Amino acid sequence: MTALTDLPQEFSFIHRHFAKLAGPAALGLKDDAAVFTPPAGRELVIAADAMVENVHFLPNDPPETIGRKLLRCNLSDLAAMGATPEGWLLTLARPPGLDDSWFAAFCSGLNADQTRFGLSLLGGDTTSTRGPLVLSLTILGSVPCGQAIQRKGAQAGDGLWVTGTIGDGALGLRVLQGQLKDPSGYLASRYRLPQPRVGLPLYGLASAAMDVSDGLLQDAGHLARESGLDVTITAATVPLSEAATACGPHWREICLTGGDDYEILFAVPPSHEADLQQAGALETPHGRVAVTRIGQFHEGNGEVRALGHDGCPLFFAKGGWSHL
Amino acid sequence: MTALTDLPQEFSFIHRHFAKLAGPAALGLKDDAAVFTPPAGRELVIAADAMVENVHFLPNDPPETIGRKLLRCNLSDLAAMGATPEGWLLTLARPPGLDDSWFAAFCSGLNADQTRFGLSLLGGDTTSTRGPLVLSLTILGSVPCGQAIQRKGAQAGDGLWVTGTIGDGALGLRVLQGQLKDPSGYLASRYRLPQPRVGLPLYGLASAAMDVSDGLLQDAGHLARESGLDVTITAATVPLSEAATACGPHWREICLTGGDDYEILFAVPPSHEADLQQAGALETPHGRVAVTRIGQFHEGNGEVRALGHDGCPLFFAKGGWSHL
């Protein structure tokens, strides 16, 4: 599309930075569109996410991690549906002042991650803006027909399980904002580079799943509501990393409500729970992922309860979580 | 993804405005991703485009047309490949100050167009921004396997053809900027609402195709370069609307170089040209579309020449078009 103000040399910019990310379906990023042949017998799983400077990332975040974080958030959406990554498209609105070395680092991070997670760039668009940097990423994955896991499908009596540890991303943001100390650097690294649980073998195990991006309690509410149930979480069982535990008990609320976890929250029927409890982990192409039972679904209408050590409901300042 | 600054009630915002646009594959816009079953025996054609306020549209453009223009630009990319529209995803970075009535009008325009062109919303994301409105749209279409038309493929001797009329969009922008008068309103309407040539029967007719978005001469250069040829355009044969002709001869250069046409530029082998010349139009599901022969491909290396009435090359102020 013609811009009212020209973005000079858009073609050479794209060639210089993005051509090396393009797979065969992208037709060299030179055509009007990519031509993608879906794998036989599989459905496509598609999601899009946007990130805005000063809203979703900090201007001084390393450029290597900014693009990767957006890609990983989208990969986490695929992981939640049990889908295998296939390709991605990127549009970016580029403010003045980001130079070639910034984009070289930005693309180098993306290149490392698309190799790691087995997908390639299909296409996109770059434009200029006088506002903040805005990135929008569309991801395509595939899943055998009928095997996509949705948020609805949990049954009363199913256990609520979660991968990895909860709260590191939210605490990492506070570390970067100077509100909290973490000499190990672990929490900031989890904020900047979430670990999408790509390849988690959910089909045949989970009755419902989603990724935790807006906060454990809020997202558990989405899972409960879409399944037409209530869910109760035993707060003490929510898995925390060593670094998160070291922050002390008054940061627990942030762990449960903060978001930016990109772990997978899933419902497991009782018939599968004993085996899963014994294994304590699931195998993925990217390594073993610890899984923990943190609660249970009940008849209801979408409410979340978090119970403290005494079995009494906990109440949190962040409004409305119990009546989402 | 958690925002550093909250966007309150994102869920109700999405439900209020976008849920009615969602097709069955979108899972009610409530899941992590959409699940799309590609039509059997067809390949997917995918493109993404972004639009930024004050760069690609004017702040006082009617909200009904802003979203439709972006959708139509993407539909034009599908049309250039000979693909049938299937679905779309939208992300938007939303500045303060755009109220509910703005988004109601924005979505109403999109709803009319997705009905008209036979596709539905698959998913997306909304975020806040302190900068200008940024829209990013990904479109999915399909084409029988092996039938996508690309920019490469033209042969020396093929004719260069174009749909509709050229220059209306570029002149329409000048009208809206107060540089030009057009009492009919036709040129401004063509700028705000391009007419994508969806369903143009290119397969078996065209050896290469693309849509004209960056200016006829520049885009003819892309077609020539991707096919490893030169192309010569006879300027007097480039079809102009009555409104564009009425602007007078000193606006012709803008017509040829201005962009925002969203017509289809395609190469036709000599064996098909006589029939096409006689018909003068192609049938699409959205009506007959006039087609005009404006030039010819030759052996070469990507140069474009535009010839005047006297057969001599024309030179234009807009730099570099002949050596793209």
From TrEMBL, chains A, B:
Binding-site list for Mg(2+) 4: D32, D77
Protein encoded by which gene: thiL
Residue numbers binding Mg(2+) 5: D214
EC number per UniProt: 2.7.4.16
Residues engaged in binding Mg(2+) 1: D49, D125
Protein name as annotated: Thiamine-monophosphate kinase
Binding site for ATP: G124, D125, R151, S213
Pathway in which the depicted protein is active: Cofactor biosynthesis; thiamine diphosphate biosynthesis; thiamine diphosphate from thiamine phosphate: step 1/1
Record key words, sorted: ATP-binding, Kinase, Magnesium, Metal-binding, Nucleotide-binding, Thiamine biosynthesis, Transferase
List of residues binding Mg(2+) 2: D49, D77
Organism: Acetobacter orleanensis
Residues binding substrate, per UniProt: H56, D260, W321
Additional facts recorded: Reaction mechanism of ThiL seems to utilize a direct, inline transfer of the gamma-phosphate of ATP to TMP rather than a phosphorylated enzyme intermediate.
Matches recorded under Gene3D superfamilies: PurM-like C-terminal domain, PurM-like, N-terminal domain
Entry GO MF terms: ATP binding; magnesium ion binding; thiamine-phosphate kinase activity
Organism ancestry: Bacteria, Pseudomonadati, Pseudomonadota, Alphaproteobacteria, Acetobacterales
Protein's GO biological process: thiamine biosynthetic process; thiamine diphosphate biosynthetic process
Residue span, PurM-like N-terminal domain: 31-143
InterPro entries recorded: PurM-like_C_dom, PurM-like_C_sf, PurM-like_N, PurM-like_N_sf, ThiL-like
Catalysed reactions, as listed in the record: thiamine phosphate + ATP = thiamine diphosphate + ADP
Protein residues bound to Mg(2+) 3: D32, D77, D211
Chain's role: Catalyzes the ATP-dependent phosphorylation of thiamine-monophosphate (TMP) to form thiamine-pyrophosphate (TPP), the active form of vitamin B1.
Family: Belongs to the thiamine-monophosphate kinase family.
Stored NCBIfam families: thiL (TIGR01379)
Domain PurM-like C-terminal: 155-300
Source superkingdom: Bacteria
